[in-house]
Amino acid sequence: MHHLVNCAGVALGEGGVVECSESAWDKTMAINVKSIFLTGKYTIPKMIEAGGGAVVNIASVFGMVANPDECGYAASKGAVINLTRQMSIQHAKDSVRVNAVLPSDCDTPLIAGLLGVEGEELETAKRDLAEPIPMGRLAKPEEIAAGIAFLLSEDAGFITGVSLPIDGGFLTR
């Protein structure tokens, strides 16, 4: 085993701290954080045995900035960023690189489903979602994949502990 991409996540629209149920909080943390903990726990030793490897954890721009409507999601993605840093510092000596990507909203069928609209309404909703992104559009899945592929590659052989925004400039605002 030389490569691992942790790409599981849930956003439940749980609201702020007051509105968020304990069950929504627990589910979000289990899927978004504990899954990365467990895959790292059981995969990194195999990478060490194989002479090294690379891990990419999928976080989010919302791990760096507050989202008033999703306290659990934002907290979980912040935890992913810091877990990535912890894993990277612990396993650098083992030739295991651990990095994260921080995508902004991405134009996928999942987004269409979350927005709950179709046709022209969907296009309007996606434009509204892209409004705070300086490049003026949502990310494409292949752009996120290219960042992940780079971090897994030997071209990134001296990169560890990095959280790479793939966000069209979202975090610069």
Automatic annotation (TrEMBL):
SUPFAM superfamilies: NAD(P)-binding Rossmann-fold domains (SSF51735). This is SDR family oxidoreductase. PROSITE patterns: ADH_SHORT (PS00061). InterPro entries: NAD(P)-bd_dom_sf, Sc_DH/Rdtase_CS, SDR_DHRS6-like, SDR_fam. Belongs to the short-chain dehydrogenases/reductases (SDR) family. One of its GO terms (molecular function) is oxidoreductase activity. It comes from Leucobacter insecticola. Keywords: Oxidoreductase.
